[in-house]
What does this fold into?
Amino acid sequence: MSDEVMELGLRERKKRAVRIAIRRKALELVADRGICGVSVDDIAVAAGVSPRTFFNYYASKDEALFTPAEDRLEAADSLIAGADRSLGPLGGAHEAMLDLMDERKHDLTPVRLRRKILEREPALIGSFLRVSMSTQAHWVARLHERFADHDPPFPDGYIELVVTSTWAAAGTALSVWGAGGHAEPLLDILRRQLDQLSAGLAHPLSNS
It folds into this structure.
C-alpha cells in the first residue's frame, strides 16, 4: 500500500471521527435541552470544533441529529451481502436488523437518544422520517443486488414490503421495550416482532 493511499485512509478516518463526535454531541445536547435550547455553537464547543467545521459536515442541527451513521450503513451492507440466500430477502433483512440492534455488538446509545428526542420534539419527526426512508431505500437496493438472480424473480414491491415491515417491527420493538422499563431485553422483543412478521410474509404473493 502506497504512502498516498495510507494517508488518504488516515484522513478519511479522522474526518469520520469528527463527524461522529459532532453527531454524538448534537444528540446528547438536544436530548437533554431540547432543540431550541441548543445552538450550533453549543454543539461545536461540545465536540471540540469550530462552528465553521460543523457546517463543513452538516447543514443544520436537524441533519446532525438524523444523518445515518456510516458504520451502521456499512454494517448493513456487509450483513445483506453475506446473507444466506436460502433465507430469502425476508430472512436476510431480519437477520441484518437483529445484528444491528444487538447491544453486545453495537452501541445503541444514538438510537436511544433519537427516540428520546422524538418523544420530546414531535416537530422533528418529519426530519427523522426523511432519513429513515432514505436508509430503507438503501436496504432495498442492497437486497435487490443480493437476490438479483433469484428464479423466479420476486414480485414487484415484495422487497420494498420486506424492508418497510422489518423497520416497522424494529420501531415497534423499541416502543415496547421503552414502555416496559427495559424489563425484557430489546433483542428478545425484536425477535418476537420479526417472528410474527415471518408468519405472514414468508411466502411472497404473485403480481396477478
DSSP finds ten helices and no strands in the chain. The radius of gyration is 19 Å. The chain has two domains: 3-61, 70-200.
